[in-house]
Each structure stands twice: as structure tokens, then as C-alpha cells.
Amino acid sequence: MPQKDPCQKQACAIQKCLQANKYMESMCEEVIRNMRRCCEVHRGNSTCCSGFKDSKPTENKTET
Fold first, then answer.
1. Most distant CA atoms of the chain, gap in Å
2. DSSP code per residue over 33-54
């Protein structure tokens, strides 16, 4: 029996949110962040992450 994709829940949440908000990404920033976090953890184990691209660069933390 194949294992469930560890980030499938987050990928489905993105689709649901986008559909509910007429595909306005700005309305789904939190679920997109959750997907990014999941992909960071499960990079090699999630087929959902293979097609997930960051549209925005990651935040750079700079110290002054």
C-alpha cells in the first residue's frame, strides 16, 4: 500500500482556498506558507512539492 504524500493536505488546502477566493493568491498567503514549510521538511518525500515553486523569494533576515 503506497504511503500518503506528507504534503497532500497542504496542497489540497491551497486549491480549496484559491477556488474559494477567485484565484487571488493574496487571500491564501497562510496556506501557501504552510505548504512551503511542509516542503522544507519533506522535500524528497513529497510528490506535491515537486511541482510547487516559490513565486516570492524567501525572506532574508539581516542583522544590523
1. 52
2. HHHHHHHHHSTTT-HHHHT---
Model pTM? Answer: 0.73
Q: Could you state, in order of their start, the residue ranges of all structural domains in the chain?
A: 8-49
Residue among 1, 12, 14, 7 nearest 44 (CA): 7
Phi-psi domain of 32 (left: phi exceeds 0; alpha: psi -120 through 50; beta: other): alpha
Helix (H) or strand (E) holding 13: helix 8-20
Between these two residues, 20 and 58, which has the higher pLDDT value? 20
C-alpha cell at 17: 482556498
Average pLDDT of span 37-59: 77
Closest Cα to residue 3, out of 43, 37, 45? 45
